Amino acid sequence: MYKEEILLIGEMITITIMAFALGMDAFSLAIGMGMIGLRYRHIFNIGVTVGAFHIVMPFIGLIVGKFLTQYFGMLAIMIGGGLLLFLGCQMIYSALFSHDRDSGVIKPVGFGLLLFAVSVSIDSFSAGLSLGMIGAKTIITLACFGMVSMILSWLGLIIGKKVEGYIGVYGELLGGGILLAFGLKLIFPI
After folding, report:
1. What's the rounded Cα separation, in Å, for the pair 6 and 173?
2. pLDDT per residue over 36-69, tens digit each?
3. Using CA atoms, how far apart are residues 130 and 103, in angstroms rounded to an integer?
4. CA distance readout (Å), 112 to 11, 18, 87
5. pLDDT at residue 103 greater than cutoff 50
6. What integer is the mean pLDDT of 148-177?
7. DSSP string of the chain?
8. 11 or 175: whose pLDDT is higher?
9. Are 107 and 92 in contact (CB under 8 A)?
10. Residue 33: which residues within 8 A CB-CB, separation 6 or more?
């Protein structure tokens, strides 16, 4: 009994560390996204959506991982990187060439929100490919992934919103640069 409790605690610590690692990119990217002047209602919706995708993507990864090879995991990372590059370029273009600040940027609402959520949770898909191999408790793991990424997304979006007020249009450039850099990092790992 005592040994099982220690193993459970060790597994929970491992799952929590993994959830933070997967949620940190959502946090970083949310700072950039928060700089486009979002309302708190949007921040709430974005956090919930990102959290949901951090549950769904590893679950799909678990299912797909049983049937596909490592090649597909790399393809998923490349697609995620491409989405981040697209969003980053869109924000930078809007900041540099659009006189109406909100005209060119893809807002994190509707399809734009889905693009953002997929791009920050694509690494969770890859993690899901390997979750089944370690025998992790699926429901606990997925709930932890979703909760941690949702909280980190909210935190990043709020920080971005606060910083944006101080740096104005340069915030949109910085946010686009952050998205662009993470997209390049996914596509060209060092």
Report:
1. 48
2. 778 899 899 999 999 999 999 888 877 776 555 4
3. 41
4. 35, 27, 9
5. no
6. 79
7. -HHHHHHHHHHHHHHHHHHHHHHHHHHHHHHHHHTTT--HHHHHHHHHHHHHHHHHHHHHHHHHHTTS-HHHHHHHHHHHHHHHHHHHHHHHHHHHH-SSTTTSSPPSSTHHHHHHHHHHHHHHHHHHHHHHHHT--HHHHHHHHHHHHHHHHHHHHHHHHHHHHHHTHHHHHHHHHHHHHHHHHHHS--
8. 11
9. no
10. 46, 108, 116, 156, 157, 160, 175, 179
Query: Token pair of 134, please?
Result: 């370690």
Residue reference for tokens 């996204």: 33
| Nearest C-alpha neighbor of 179 from the set 33, 17, 48 | 33
